[in-house]
């Protein structure tokens, strides 16, 4: 009986904590359930999308900045997952203005919300790839992920610097 109650409490706590994780305000809303790879294979013009992934290249000119992004699935917070072996295709997102390529550098995580406004063909090695092009309304650059410092610290005793009864 106790383990059944514990399970329900664990499920309830997990649901409450998961409910606290939400996307930034600018990235919230209703978007098409469409991946970049699926959008390049079919005509999806004027669909509202929220895509994210890893920046591959940044192209800035006088009027706008375009990002070439390797698309990845998004977490509930709208941040791209970090699985290096997973890809949902590629896309190009452009927005008016200058975005510094030093900040929006290759390998950074980005989430983009906007409307598909066309397609652009470019070569990847010798393959002609059809990129969906997004007119970005929101570009969210995520902070760099830092590896956790997982050093083990032995427990402290009451009267000793280290607890003498603690087993290595």
Strand content: 35-45%
Strand segment tally:
5
What is the class in the CATH system?
A: Mainly Beta
What do we call the CATH topology?
OB fold (Dihydrolipoamide Acetyltransferase, E2P)
Total individual domains:
1
Q: What is the helix fraction of residues, given as a range?
A: 10-25%
Distance between the termini: 37 Å
Order of helices and strands: HHEEEEE
CATH architecture: Beta Barrel
Q: Based on CA inertia axes, which overall geometry fits?
A: globular
Uncertain runs with pLDDT below 50, 5 residues or more? none
Radius of gyration: 22 Å
By DSSP (H or I, 4+ residues per run), the number of helices equals: 2
- The CATH homologous superfamily is called Nucleic acid-binding proteins
Tell me what the structure shows.
15% of the residues lie in helices and 36% in strands. A five-stranded mixed β-barrel has the order 1-2-3-5-4.
What's this, in brief?
The chain contains 2 helices and 5 strands, in the order ααβββββ. With 168 residues, the chain is an alpha+beta fold. The chain has one domain: Nucleic acid-binding proteins (OB fold (Dihydrolipoamide Acetyltransferase, E2P)), CATH 2.40.50.140.
Give a quick set of tags describing it.
168 residues; alpha+beta; 5-stranded mixed beta barrel
List the helices and strands and how they pair.
Elements: H1 2-20, H2 36-41, E1 48-60, E2 64-72, E3 90-96, E4 109-124, E5 127-141
Parallel strand pairs: 3-5
Antiparallel strand pairs: 1-2, 1-4, 2-3, 4-5
